Amino acid sequence: MSWVWKSLNSSIGKKLVMAITGVALMLFLIIHLAGNLILYGGKEAFNNYVELLELIKPFIRAIEVILASIFIFHIFNGTRLWIENKQARPQGYSINGSRKNTTVFSRTAFITGSIVFIFLVIHLQTIWYKFNFSGTELDLYTITTEWFQVWWYSALYFIAVLLLGFHLNHGFQSAFQTFGWNHKKYFPFIEKLGTVYALIMTIGFGSIPVYFFFFGGK
Amino acid sequence: MSPRKINLTLKIWRQRSPQSPGKFAEYKVAVSPDSSFLEMLDDINNDLEKKSLEPITFESDCREGICGTCGLVINGQPHGPIPRIATCQLHMRNFKEGDTIYVEPYRAKAFPIIKDLMVDRSAMDRIMEAGGFISVNTLSVPDGNAIPIPKDIASEAMDAAQCIGCGACVAACKNASAMLFVSAKVSQFALLPQGQPERYQRVESMVKVMDEYGFGSCSNTYACEAECPKGVSVKNIARMNREYFMAKIKSQNIE
Amino acid sequence: MIKLDSKVPEGKLEEKWTNHKFNMKLVNPANKRKYDIIVVGTGLAGASAVASLGELGYNVKAFTFHDSARRAHSIAAQGGINAAKNYQNDGDSVYRLFYDTIKGGDFRSREANVYRLAEVSNNIIDQCVAQGVPFAREYGGLLDNRSFGGALVSRTFYARGQTGQQLLLGAYTAMNRQVNLGKVKLYTRREMLDVVVVDGAAKGIVVRNMLTGEIEKYSAHAVILATGGYANAYFLSTSAMNCNATAIWRAHKRGAAFANPCFTQIHPTCLPLHGENQSKLTLMSESLRNDGRIWVSKLKHDMRKPNEIPEEERDYYLERKYPTYGNLSPRDISSRAAKEAIDNGRGAQGQDAVYLDFQDAINRLGQKVIEERYGNLFEIYETITGDNPYKSPMKIYPAPHYTMGGLWVDYNMQSTIQGLFVGGEANFSDHGANRLGASALMQGLADGYFVLPYTIGNYLAGDKPTLVKTDHPEFEKVKKEVENMTAKLLSIKGKRTVDDIHKQLGRIMWNKVGMGRNEKGLKEAMVEIKVLREEFWKDVNVVGDSKDVNQCLERAARVADYLELGELMALDALTRNESCGGHFREEYQTPEGEALRNDEDYAFVSAWEFKDVGKWELNKEPLEFTSVKLATRSYK
Q1: Into how many domains does chain B fold?
Q2: Known catalytic residue: C331?
Q3: Is the ipTM of this complex over 0.95?
Q4: Topology of C268-399 in CATH?
Q5: Residue B228 in domain
Q6: For FRET with C382, which of B58, B147, B149, C591 sits at 20 to 30 Å CA-CA?
Q7: Is there a domain that residue B255 lies in?
Q8: Which residue does chain A place closest to B79, by CA atoms?
């Protein structure tokens, strides 16, 4: 089966790994956003939702393991590609013309991804860790909304979500291109769909810190 | 035909040999707007030769945008600021009085610099040799009209086949990836009925050699398409990806 | 005196090639790998020969001065390739293609060769289609054709405006396949500087490695030159910057006769000059003449803009003079007509240019159709000139484009040096005094795919040449001579740049050995070239050194050869006291200004034998026509 391993490590194979993991993460984001939007429903609605999750804990754990490995693959592979791609041009140009022939979204995918990753670590520590390992029954609605009262946390959250939007805007159509699904008829639609998806994610996630910081959730 | 000349400052990369460090040298020129970019370099060289100074080494041949020999990075863009042309077709009327223009060679690990603006692009030939062909011997072929090919398929194959092998896609790509170049040939043959028998073997061999030469991967920024003098589409890269996956699934190759 | 034996086989014209193939000696398949063959040049003729010989099993060494075999100038051919397929049912046949070609060449080519060319033309199309060349197709999926100058049938196959590119890439991929299989060893960035002849037979070549400056020796049982033409002797031509005559010229100096050097083609539809520093001229495909109308003002020194000149004051001179062929008259005739109009003071806005106007076609067919047909050419025009040809007519002017002359070869493509074969534009064989459009691609591929692979086998099996090792004294001697020449060029350190001298040579050639030639001008040209040559060897400045990439040195060596070849071109033109095809002697014309051929005295090939620099001996190969009647070439 060495051909499988070799194929996944070829230049095209590595891109395929990025695309598949990327699509999986994009699907996860939809569910995540749906959950977050329940915050708008108020304390009771949100805590009920959390309780529901508690009920299916083993299932959630399994999903989390899969999700974590997808994240690791996506991040590890992305970093490896970034390093290898840098090595493909040991000496750069003195004048960078990339602004004239690429979009900011595609050019900065690694940087936006990296910043989102930093946020992810903080996010896991502040919310996810508390959710799962604090030991006692918590009022998660209050904990979450209190975090959003912290200006730097809300600002970081907002910026990260904005950059995530950039990342997704590139990633969505890019995944389809990598899968080879670039057709004259459908690709313009896919590109638009990607932008709509990225906008929904950005507005959906981004509105939460804004709402809770400025209006205190009241 | 205008006698008017424009004054420009050129910063041109000079490098004696592959190993020696290079740097920009400055040249002030007054040039006719009707002159081509390479003719301007010819002029500079003629002046240098008159002073017994070594002329700038750069490559060009057909000077009508089809041989793919020329290729300079002008202000950060391969083949300069005008889309859909090669360096040799760039005319000075596209620059303004007083402009400063940076001229650099293609930069990529797979394209080592030989001298000044001249680079070694032989990696591209090695990729072609690995599988960029249809195996037919001379004369052992059917009549030209034996296989009808739909007009739009022939036309799409031609769109891909237009590639001039200049390497601007590699030079433009932030990853110095050769995907557009390789995919153009893969696509041409994948589209045509003549290319079917070796379809999977071809894409596997070509990608393998491409990877060996240290070209980067594709991050779908599409800088290659934007800078390609023939406008070869990134749809070909998508097609190559598809071909590659299908090859990996279907071919007999277990290497 | 060389004995010129054309080795044209006996028998009826239609059967010569078939019979010859049958009578040729064959090399046992197992023995083929014992033979080494050198091919210099990887254009259409070279690459196709390399591929075919590799497939047969020979060990082939292929040489090109480019960084890649795909860059050869065949790639720039735009319009198309002829073949007698008669897919259009318009009355074409092998015989008609043969006849058109021999008539187009003004009856100065060898009948048997031209017939063979027409005969194998159909194989070329099949071959290229099988290689995946994306020729233009009709809606039903079958191959499309268009018309070209000098023919009344549609027999030209094309791939947009890039036919040469696609055909070359076809041959290049076929060659790559052999490289991959290990049958061909490809040497790039090597410029051939001499051929090594031992006991009267070509045994190898000496090349300069253009990266290291090393002079390298390679030996083989036979050598094929497919190194293209010499139009760059004019400095400005449609040839690529690096096209040169060095390979054939050095072979000529070693004993290969040079045939019909004065037969040069001036292409009518090129872009006019823009200024002093112009480096080359750009061709606009002849296919434009399918829909474009060529005209000048009826008035002398008319400085009005073209759109301001009313219809009745325009002279559509090709349509007027040659009503049958009109704007699709052959190249030599169209070029000369343009020159005549301009000499008459009727050039476009006082320039050296005539108009190529699409207004009628746009009115008739709509801009969209014209865009589909010629869109890319119109874009090229606008890129270069800054004018929009949809709005005002193109300005065009003739430019040196192709050289029908070249090394003399017999029916087997062998030169007067045994074992030295010559294919493509580098030989003289098939186009006579003028080449028809879309015939160069045909000839290059015919030579490489379908002629040389047979005739080389015949030579190897018949003459049983031995291999001479590269340590043979002759190899050493030739290498030394090449090194000495390089050292000499580098040591002059004079005041004039190589380009400066080349441009001066170009002006002499264009003015006196160009479209219209006369005795006085030619004699002057010979003297001027001789003087310039002496000046070159005294006062040229070749910068840099020999052990490095040195483009200045590369150019200098090529110009040194043009300075000898230019004189021979003038001498040949002076000797040929008639007008035929691209060779127009002003003394020999009809009262209407048409070329006046002299079949009585000049129905021969001039094969010049090199004696010393500036000294040649003329040998004549009489041309016998058994199937066609020598007729005045009329396109009226």
Answers
A1: 2
A2: yes
A3: yes
A4: Flavocytochrome C3; Chain A, domain 1 (3.90.700)
A5: yes
A6: B58
A7: no
A8: A97
